[in-house]
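re: that complex we talked abt at group meeting.

here r the seqs, copy pasted straight from the sheet so there may be weird spacing, ignore it
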Amino acid sequence: MVKISVLQHAPSTHLPARPGDPTPTSRNLDPLMHPFARARERTRALNAVKMERIFAKPFIAALEGHVDAVETMARKPGTLNVVASGSWDGGMIGKISGVCFADEDRLLTCGVDRNVKLWDTREVDENGAGPSDVRKPLNVFPGKSAFNSIDHHRTDPIFATASNIVQIWDETKSAPISNLSFPTSIETISAIKFNLSESSVLASIGSDRTFTLYDIRTGKAERRIVMQMRSNALSWSPTFPTTILLASEDHNLYTFDIRSLKTPSQIYKAHVAAVMSCDWSPTGHQFVSGGWDRTVRIWQEGRGTAPEVYHTKRMQRVTSTLFTSDAKYVLSGSDDGNIRIWKARAHEKLGILDSRERAAIEYRESLKQKWKTDAQVNKISRTRHIPKPVHKAGQLKRTMLEAQRVKEERRRKHTRAGESKPTAEKRKVVIAEQS
Amino acid sequence: MARAQKPKQSRRPQAKSLKQNNLRGFAKRQSLKSQRSSKYSESSDVYEYQPENVRRSKVKLQLEKDELDGARRDISGSEDEDDGPKRNGLRPRLVGENDDEGGLGSDEDEEIDSDEAFDESDEERFAGFNFSTKKRSLQSRTVPLIDLNEDEVELEEAPSENASASEGEDSAADDEEEGDPEDFIDVLDMIDGKGPAESADEGEHTQKEERPSASKARVEGDDVPHLEDEDEDMHDEEDEGISSDESEEDESHISPMDDAISASGDEDDDVGTSLHDLQSFITNLDAGQKRKAPDDEAAPTTETGEARRQKRRMLKERTEAGEENEFAPHRGATKLNLDDLLNPLASSSSNLLSLKKSAKILTSISAKNQTLSAPLPQRTQERLDREAAYQQTKEEVDKWSATMKKIKEAEHLSFPLQAQPAGRTSNLELAAKFKPTTELESAVDRLLKSAKMREEDIAQTESLKMNHLSVEEVSARRAELAKMRELMFRAEAKAKRVAKIKSKTYRRIKKKEKAKIAAKLGEGSDDEDMNEETRMKHEVERARERATLKHKNTGKWAKAMRARGDLDEDQRRDISEMLSRGEKLRRRIQGIGSGDESEEGEDDTEDDEEGAADRIKASAFEELAQLDKGSEGEEDSGRKGKSIFEMKFMKDAIARDQQRAKQMADDFVREMGESNHEDDEDDELTGGRIEESSGATIERVGGRVTYRPGAQQSQLRTVNSLASDTSSITLRSNDLPSDVARSVTPSATSPIPEKLGIATEAPNPWLAPRQDPAKAVPKKHEIAVSKDSASVEKSKNKLRKKAQKHEEEQSKARNDAAVDISMSNVMTLGDNSSAGPSKPKTRSQSGNQRDDGDDDSDVHSEVEEQERLLDRKGKGKANGVKAFEQRDLVARAFAGDNVVRDFAEAKRREMQEDAPKEVDTTLPGWGSWGGTGTRKAQPKPHLIKKVAGVDPTTRADYKKAHVIISEKRDKKAAKYMVKDLPYPYTSKAQFERSMDIPIGTEWNTRVGFQRGTLPKIVTKPGTVINPLEKLL
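got the structure back, here u go
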């Protein structure tokens, strides 16, 4: 009796069951068998972060057309590829200061000509005017003073305008249906926005360094805070309905929880000049801001420093920024009259990814995340090349802040013990909360 | 006063009767008042006088109280002393009035007094209100509105009011006389209410001379209905009416009576007639209080025309009785309370409670300060509104907090968050929806339908079949089915199990069984004898075959080989091998039965069966032996740890258990091998061999006869196992009999190598500890045996014991020495083998050791350590010499091993290397003069290189003599270090754990990798992400 033993290879154990399936691997998962796992992963993380920097090419395109600063932009609801913009060169008289979509086809604009106009944005509008013809507005809502901002209610045919007061309009009526203003306020309202989820709540910012909260249900200006510096733009978070973002003149951005307006929930510091505009990503976990310092910055929600910085040589002061509805792209309108399209993630590969590539990308991302505490990895991922003026301004700003800090410290040192206590940075932002 | 003259004259006759009535009425009232006061607590308030009360149009009720007050006072006249000191303030004026009218008859005084007093006081208190012209203009403006109000209120009460109005004071007196006591309250109330009106009238009479024309002129514009009244009375009334609309209406109501009065006044001379008239009038009223029309008709005796009467009638209907001036919208001495309204409802208690509750609030509110507080300033109000609105918004917004929390805490988010879930359609759904469309489908459907095989049909038919079965039948059927199923299942399981058996013998047996069965079946009904015969034959054949080893050629393979004829080399070799094997076997069998070859053949058959039994027994014994071994092994391993099993009681318990087990084993062995050993022991006793004493011995011949141990050594065996039998070879070869004995005794069943080890290891100090458990066991074992064993054995045991006692003493001494040196004693705290008293010492020793470690003055060598231990142990026992011997042994073993010194030296070197130093880098011959006669220059400072190094005192291992901690920085390892604990982590361990686990595919399963690398936020390209929406 002779027994014969053969080396047998069952193809099922080492070949994919179907074409396209991953190749089955047989590995020993015992960590003791992999003494160099850590070292290998670190190297990979390092490579990943280097690759990220190599492939960080965020700029996609510039849209030309305006001859003056792009004051405002609005995305069309339900689509990804249409954006409206308003510029200083906008109307017959004066600039277009506010643009918003009433619904998918109609657009509302307001300007310093003291009119709100409703437009049809279809290829061929009701009057039969094609894309090349000069169109006429569907409706004109005359106001008493120049408008600074306009925003449409998310669901109802209501829109709000900001001039020296906040006015609520019905699309079907030519006069405002209600005026909202904080008594004793004689400021110019510079921007107004409806809350996206809690759509009866709206907020405005004014030239009096104020932020005011309204509710059209109660029909009142409900609360107002006065800050150190005036805000230039505001934006409601789409996923956290209580959160509002303010772009301030003092180079910072602030998020506030409207339930407690005493202190901001986070301060975002990186701009080296006034922040002119801001907009949340539709995910609510990122936002973009454009500043007087000619940079566009993309921030992670809750992380107050080290944003992604975009800049080009020819981009001037960024007066308006916008995230697209799929959270993949960022638009910036600047003083030079161009609208630029950027990737929201600078190193992201555009186009179709196959599963292996996606797995590799995800692996690299998680490696970077895991090893971000590593000094070398961190340094590479942190380093940005920014224009010299911005860099210098940053340095200068740092110096000034440091000097201020030192001065404050010295002052405190020379006052009687316990008499002057350092105040938290967050507490300094709001001067007064008025009800 | 001049103005008072005229009315006084006219009323004198009335006044007398009035006065009397007043008196009587007052008495009654007083008595009732007390009752009422208890009934209506609020009524007491009514009498409080508030001179500084300012009247407002809104707060009528309160004022009316006062008015009432005043009215009552007037009615009750001077007797109202009980009203308290406040009233006294008013007194003087009243007195003054009296004085004025003093000239008139004293009996009239009172009457006039009361009248006048009322006027005066009223004028005083409500000066600005009633009578001053200034106010009039103001009020005239408000007339229409108030008028309406009054109408509404008083229309309800019109009949009674009318009645009371017409009654007057006199009628009140009449009522008192006539009516039953129950009526009194009402009447009195009426009087109280009416009184002021009446007196007012009279007051007006007195006043009218003062300003007849002026008021008239004014009135005409204001009050149309009264325009027709040209009477002086009417003037008065109008006067009143203008001053307050209520009073005006009063007047209009009263007018009939007034007319009567005035008529009598006109015919001033015949007092008697007038009095009569009045009385008749009153009686008329009394007769039918509610008849208004008759009253009116009674009135026409006056000069007023028909038209006027009609007017009046109209007015009457419109408004209330005469007391309805500004003082008396309600006439009761007490205010009409909610309680009054609620009392009748008392029977329906269920509703009442709730009603009362709500009413309570009302009363409390009305009881409080009735002026509304002034509205807040607009700004404050607005601020409050805003505050409230903000709170509202906050609440509304706060409803999102749970959602937001969830999003914040989510590990992975896939946007859009509120995407419409793509619903999966189930088979059922599809089946329900399905309708045959194509030809094929419809054909299939038709077929199914005709065969009644569609889903619903199947269910139907099944139910039909089951319909005509009883419950028992169904259950029986079911049970049967279940049973069958069960049986089938078991059979299947068994078959599976059997199929798995690989044993060849089993297969053979199985085959035979099968053959047998087949044969049986073939034979079928053959006789048993025949059966027996054939079997015997078969047996014989088999035996023969086996004896001759014929079957060597009967195998399948062999047959095949034979059949093949010509064979190649391999096959031939195989065959020859087989043959040789067979030969060998035969030789062996012959060798065993050396002397009795003749018997061999006969025994063969038995050998087979008996051998099997033997084999089984042998295996059982082997098992026992192994068990023993195992237990010892356990003991050994148990010694190492410092567990609970180390404790004495546990050890005892274990020992006891083992004892019991052993006993059982011994019993078993005895039973099984009884005959054997008895034989053996017989042999021993006789000193010879009786092989053929029993058939059993012959069976066990295999290999044992030759190996049987000698007599002198087998003396010590008690309950010997087969295993120990075999071991005796080695034992015999041993030179030391005592050792042998010792080794054998501890456990009869223990395997040989163990014993051997014990026997040889005794002088080896390093193996000494292992002996301890073995030492404990034997004693007990002996006892156990002596208890249970038979008497024959007992005697043997005695013998053996004697031998052992001596043996034990020796071994004890040896063991002590061994134990003392043992390593484990140094390391572990309390060793069980050492006696109780030694324990605390060991502990203290360990404490000392720690102290030594702390001060680091020196490092103890193990030798010293052991020495100390020995000292301590040696105190109690007399084995010092042995201990020292042991020490010498150790010393010799480690001669030349200066570990400690070497270590210290190494550390010193290390420290020196790391210490800061200065290196002179001067190259000789460079930068200095050479040659003879040159002095050696000092090294130049810039050529002295300073190496920072590590100061010995700052080293991590400074003052730690037993370690060397390197101060060298490992650059490669430094890469993996972090300076501070990164943010989200709260402990070092946490961070390290997170970094420990690699995430790549090489170290994870595929799924694990996918999970580990899943990004936190996933967005699909080209998908619009809408903001969160409120889902209702």
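couple things i noticed - Chain A has a mean pLDDT of 92. Residues 266 and 345 of chain A are 22 Å apart (CA to CA).
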